[in-house]
Amino acid sequence: MHARADTPSENAQSWPEDIFGVLQRFDVRQVPYVPDAGHSQLIERVLGAPSMRAVPLTTEEEGVALLAGAWAGGQRGVLLMQSSGVGNCINMLSLTQIFRFPFLTLVTMRGEWGEFNPWQVPMGSSTAGVFELSGIKVLRASSPDEVREVVEAGAGQAYNACTPTAVLLSQRLIGAKVFTK
Amino acid sequence: MSNTNLLERRAVVASLLKDRKRTIAVGGLGASTYDIAAAGDHDRNFYLWGAMGGAVMIGLGIALAQPKLPVVVITGDGEMLMGMGSLATVGLQKPGNLSIVVLDNEVYGETGGQASHTAATADLVGIARCCGIADARALATMAEVEAFALLMQDVSSGPRFASVKIDSANLERVLSNRDGAFIVSRIRGALGFQPI
């Protein structure tokens, strides 16, 4: 287990850069997010990318609806959130089946692999199940060297086959958040 | 609540969409979708039959993707209250081409007419303005509705928000099509996008 960096500059990783590269290659234009420390490096990259529109949300379900609108308007998007936000999306996830649009979300996992905070565990434990019950395919990346190909596969099936997909980024990959030094 | 100055919802929506030109119209779950259908089916109509609280965000997604097209979200007070955070998200993004119109009858008409928060305390115009939507107004006359319809065509001066207090009478439903994949494909087709 390694510690999660609180800011991108503390401990820059290569896998967020891999994700950013995949999103660029798939011409992803709208990137709604609720911040998570595990996504902070990627969010910084998106905020600095002229071809992408970062859209901070007040709650994650907004992002599902935003991406449906983006698709109707001819753009691809990706929703960035942490596992606790998945529960906030459940009814809105209906849209992925109703519109059959290319939904992709990248979810940083909490509540597993050395978690300190018990409040993260219930939703983290049900995250994959919630997606599956909602008709969304679940992929998972747990080590830095597999992130690129897993996200690439997720983006490919979402955008090319309109198969709604969630890629879970394991806490083992990101590092458990450290509350006490 | 009795008020003799309430506008009639079908007349309001018909007026908003009369000279819509290239406008994309998003209708929230419930009566506002019927109102849009009553004004005439259109290949740029985005009808919602669910996803309560999502209408404004769908409108925002379209508006950001198509910044030169007018986009109007027409929804009800209950649907707007459920997605209130989306007003903060719109206030931050400031899409110049997005207009939001709430048809406020102060009740949940689809479910038996239970009072909504706007009947007593919640002020949606104030909420929208405090979320950073500087052009937030109440429309009280058909002349004001007509002026707003013209303003909607200006894709650089939004986002704008309007609340229209309307009569709470339940009108006969005018059912739009409700196949989501069809609705979205039709809009994409109208904008020149192909199926996958």
Describe this protein's structure:
The complex is a heterodimer of chains A (181) and B (196). With 181 residues, chain A is of the alpha/beta class. Chain A has one domain (10-174): 3-Layer(aba) Sandwich (Rossmann fold). Chain A is built from eight helices and seven strands, in the order αβαβαββααβαβαβα. Chain A has helices spanning 15-25, 40-47, 61-72, 83-86, 94-98, 121-133, 144-161, 171-174; strands at 28-33, 53-56, 76-77, 79-82, 104-108, 137-141, 165-169. In chain A, strands 4-5-7-6 form a four-stranded parallel beta sheet, sandwiched between helices. The longest helix of chain A is centred in the C-terminal third of the chain and has 18 residues, at 144-161. Chain B has one domain: Rossmann fold (3-Layer(aba) Sandwich), CATH 3.40.50. Chain B is globular, with a radius of gyration of 15 Å. In chain B, helix 1 packs across helix 2 and helix 1 packs parallel to helix 7 (142-151). The model of chain B has no long low-confidence stretch (mean pLDDT 96). Chain B is an alpha/beta fold and 196 residues long. Chain B has a six-stranded parallel beta sheet with strand order 2-1-3-4-8-7, sandwiched between helices. Chain B has a two-stranded antiparallel ribbon with strand order 5-6. Chain B has helices at residues 9-17, 31-38, 55-65, 77-82, 85-93, 124-130, 142-151, 180-190; strands at residues 24-27, 45-47, 71-76, 98-104, 107-108, 114-115, 135-139, 160-165. Chains A and B meet through strand 2, helix 3 and helix 5 of A and helix 3, helix 5 and helix 8 of B.
